[in-house]
Amino acid sequence: MAQQTPDDKPTGLAYRAMKTLHRVELVAIGDELLNGLRANSHLVYLGDLLQKHDLGITRASEIRDEPEEMLAAFQQALERSDLIIVTGGLGPTSDDRTADCMASALKTPLVTNKAAEEAIVEFFRARDREPTPNNFKQCEIVEGGEALLNSNGTAPGQWIEKDEKVIVLLPGPPRELKPMFEEQVLPRLLKKAWAKEGAPPVEIRTLGLGESVVADMLEPILAEAGDKVRVAYCAHMNYVDVRLTPVEGGLDGKALRALGEVCRQRLGIGFLGYGTPDIACVILKQLRGLNKSLAVAESCTGGLLASRFTDMAGASKVFKGGVVCYNNEIKEAILNIPDCILSQHGAVSAECAVAMATAVAELMESDYALAITGYAGPNGGREPAGTVYLGYHSPVGAWSRKVVLPGNRIAVKERAVVASLDFLRHKLEKYKMYDLLESLKC
Amino acid sequence: MAQQTPDDKPTGLAYRAMKTLHRVELVAIGDELLNGLRANSHLVYLGDLLQKHDLGITRASEIRDEPEEMLAAFQQALERSDLIIVTGGLGPTSDDRTADCMASALKTPLVTNKAAEEAIVEFFRARDREPTPNNFKQCEIVEGGEALLNSNGTAPGQWIEKDEKVIVLLPGPPRELKPMFEEQVLPRLLKKAWAKEGAPPVEIRTLGLGESVVADMLEPILAEAGDKVRVAYCAHMNYVDVRLTPVEGGLDGKALRALGEVCRQRLGIGFLGYGTPDIACVILKQLRGLNKSLAVAESCTGGLLASRFTDMAGASKVFKGGVVCYNNEIKEAILNIPDCILSQHGAVSAECAVAMATAVAELMESDYALAITGYAGPNGGREPAGTVYLGYHSPVGAWSRKVVLPGNRIAVKERAVVASLDFLRHKLEKYKMYDLLESLKC
Questions:
Q1: Which structural domain, as residue segments, surrounds residue B368?
Q2: Is it the case that residue B232 has pLDDT exceeding 60?
Q3: Which of A11, A45, A62 is the best mutation test for B, with the most CBs of B within 10 A?
Q4: Do B62 and A60 touch (CB under 8 A)?
Q5: What is the ipTM metric for this complex?
Q6: CATH number at residue B243
């Protein structure tokens, strides 16, 4: 991928990623995964978790709730893979056929599992309800398999070992699947030494740089590490993430973190943080460290910036609040934006953005303030849709910045929010000595 | 599923859904789909679109960027399916191997396509850049296939017909894939009469009812339609959707819409709308119809409610703005919430919610107002996390409602926003005669 020069044959890096000791296959059951009603979120969850335990998923598929389809898929998976994880189709209804299809594929009968039966009786007793005969269908486990008890529902999972393969059946609802996997499946995989509690991967989030720019910047550093580390890039709407995963016999945790530090240095202000931090979270921590407060005034983003701060617990120590002024009267009435600014420069202007930031800082008595005003689309005004002015107020001064953002209304809102936060991040970086001295005064 | 009684064998409804004339298989290429970095969004998009054209996806899989894996997956797909859609792996780099792996699977050579070559030259000319030799690798099309020109990138797609099968290769980036599919692939599938421009499905969105309640309410109605319609349910965090899809030889468009109307009647206030409307959009339309305005005051949801309105173009006719008051000083200073309310009842109280709604209506001179104050978590206060008070101000009076919402902080925020909008929806419904008379006065 990006870490290769285009003329190369696939290199060691790309190849190593696929060479695992065990082939892992995820088979997700459900018509709703194929008709556009639901995304296969289990694949993202399990893919991430297994990758972090050096047991990446080799292949995944989505299969309809139809016995012939399921049987064929299970047989194929059993032929080519060592670990087969099946999600869904374990419920009490007649179209929940995962257990009997897997039993057929394994040519092994289903037997009633006592522990699972007791768990179901207990589940219903605790809720003062009566189980139906269908609920007991769920106690049927492939002979020789173990029931994985379900603390959040009635369908037990199954752990089956046969012919040196492992088959895991998991219930479909995420709140049942996740604890079952983490508490009962992962420990068994670790015990078998298929999964490894190795060094955690180092994740680096960058902001303001394109994927190819990030790859170009890091290539010399990562080329030196060669095939001692697995590298993956992922571009999101605003961020590009780089994930450095340890490989068997490669860099250890300390060396991996040191490599991360070298990347960080190289990326400069493009480095947002380790892990996958949201920029609002980064800003919040910086301001908390400075013991400073923030307020926001929003027009076209309509509260999205404010909402981003309040996604985090403890935000109220820094974030004072915001004003959403969606028309000019509100800008005048609540923020006291002078009519002359609105009539001379318009509500979408650098002047108005700065006035909004300064006004909301005064109104809420905050140290810093951000303001956003622009055309989210689909229509523009004096300027095209996507034109957004950012206003910034701080103890060292007030600035504005114009950005032109691509995409539809929702995308423009999202990009404007991140652009305003990045504006603040750059200013904080530039004036950090001043901010530091200021914070010591308090 | 839910439309069956648990004791049934899978009925005609469930079975019919799988019987299609053509087997359609999606093969998505990319390591990032398997290691948790990215969800397979193409499956959701194409699954929905094809289902609506009576050509549902039978099976899908995610495959690593490795030639052996890809070749094996393509060979298997060609054996069992009629239409094979491959996404990703068409880029200019050496690990973009979709075209040559498919050529191998089909035992057909790649040949340079003139039209694709010219399009690439033009693409770079328009951007004042020089193509590299790698870019021209992308002009290689499976012999006998057609290039699908890409107006948003350099990688052309491919349409290949061989042995009565159709193979479609699409570029990975959604903004390239979607227009290519809709403008070039779907018309070809319609022309072959594999896809059908049949009656569009009737989608019904419900709010405030659980999935099993919706199924129980609609079962008698839908049982009567028997296998003349395909029924699917999908529960989201706040909504339960029901989709009625026409089947060959079943209900026509008019009868399907009439069936939808019967469902609508049965669901009563639980019916939110046809399609998959957002509740904020429904409210906005209702208030626009009444020629009334709205303002909001938010504490724990921190701007999320306001942002929901401004996701829609033209919201400013109805939505005046909002105040995010994340601490008590702001509640006092900007909304003038009397100190006696805050000290006697607390900021998280029915009294404060009503006072916030009334205050913001006055401040912004709006007809209606909503307020939200509560404990989003992880910590509660005088009451547990998830406790939220909703305030509502209207020309006929002001009310509050207490809700206790499950989930983490993000989920509580999301649920509180929808609960407040649903509160307003119920009140509008109850006082609709009054609102109507009021609106005629204006």
A1: 279-440
A2: yes
A3: A62
A4: yes
A5: 0.76
A6: 3.30.70.2860
